[in-house]
């Protein structure tokens, strides 16, 4: 059963310097419980694709359904069934962790009591219990990411979208985050769509990869299938496959990603 | 749901304001300075209005407070866009109108608080005005804050940096202040300036408020002022909601 299916999804931005075709044509099928990696160089259209699939941005072409809800005709249904963590995160540094979690619960129409219970529950699950009364701005990078994810899980969504969840994290926190994502899928059957430009992350975490380049899907398959097909052998590195597909290397790890 | 969501967003932002009491007082600084150092200059001048010079100046200062406070309301939108807070809220089922209303109602609350302080200060300086008129005045400026706050937030959704937002707002607020007769009544103006000022919506609020402060409630000024204030608020909230709904361009 496909929990996400998109056909010909496109988005053109009108800017002062003329139209920018951020996403030209993305076809996507994601099975329930799958961890899908959207891989591509900076500016490929990954963020724009996620923002369309989460109703933040109206597509200028194509159609998609998320958890059975049509993107354009049933935005409310899509919002009920998906969670989204933007690359920048989304908490106010001045507010306490508890207050953000409770308010988020209330935004999902929980009662006050339900919302504070859910906040405690999420804090337990994501290892934030000790931090509940700290200001969000005082958390470390890894803790902030866990909080962002907790916020997105408030309503137990079927699909979780993560935009570059590990960019800027130290290696230890990255490994923790990978475990967390796998755990979500294993325990709750959550479907996870994440973007990354780290090849090792894509290789280690994703069941399947969709490589986006210049707004279109350039290739897709399991990491080993991509290596075999584009890199020449199963032992080829994903780097070789990526180079063969896009004709250039992935973004070097140290370039600062542009937040959108 | 709209009520629930608006109350929720309002509460969130009000707590935020209460945390920064200093900013609250800082907003009062400009009108207080005018009151202290400009007000006394007017007491002996023939300004042509009924009542004392304070009944003329204080309504203007209240509207000035609303004009400058609310026009810059969009700054917080730009900050929250940068933090990702706004997008995080926009993926929840929360009503888009509530995202705007909760915010501007908070601004209106803060404003009324500041306005009460300003009027109290003015009373110690010599202002005497009927209570009903003063309350009507708060109503007018509350409406103005909601209108300008909505427009400011709408504009802020469309610009990316505070650097491009600030000059834009300044370019709009300063002429509004000068052309509406906020400081001195337009009855002192030469004909062409008086005519020009009638194209400035704020002018009608200024005239209405000054009438309220001398206890004349059934005047043409009051009628036009009320019409302009309500019409402007409806228009501004409609525009604001539309922008909040389709934001993300
Ligand atoms: N709001 C916007 N207005 C104009 N251009 C945009 C906007 N958002 C993204 N773009 C452009 O669209 C392209 C794809 O951006 P994005 O989806 O953020 O890529 P990625 O996330 O893969 O790095 C880039 O060229 C970017 O500059
Ligand atoms: Mg991106």
TrEMBL record, chain A:
Q: Which SUPFAM superfamilies match?
A: P-loop containing nucleoside triphosphate hydrolases
**Matches recorded under InterPro entries:** AAA+_ATPase, ABC_transporter-like_ATP-bd, ABC_transporter-like_CS, ABC_transporter_ATP-binding, P-loop_NTPase
Entry's Pfam families? ABC_tran
Q: How does it sit in the membrane?
A: Peripheral membrane protein
Question: SMART domains from the xrefs?
Answer: AAA (SM00382)
Give the principal location in a single coarse category: membrane
- Provide the alphabetized UniProt keywords: Antibiotic resistance, ATP-binding, Nucleotide-binding, Transport
The record's subcellular location field reads: Cell membrane
What residues does the ABC transporter domain cover? 4-239
Name recorded for this polypeptide: ATP-binding cassette domain-containing protein
Q: Provide the species name.
A: Streptomyces cylindrosporus
TrEMBL record, chain B:
What is the first-listed, main subcellular location in coarse terms?
membrane
The compartments listed are: Cell membrane; Membrane
What topology does the record note for this protein and the membrane? Multi-pass membrane protein
Q: Which residues cross the membrane?
A: 22-42, 54-79, 100-125, 131-156, 168-193, 222-244
Q: Does the keyword Ligase apply?
A: no
Q: Which InterPro entries match?
A: ABC2_TM, ABC2_TM_bact-type, ABC_2_transport, Nod_factor_ABC_transporter
- What protein is this chain from? Transport permease protein
Q: Which organism is it from?
A: Streptomyces cylindrosporus
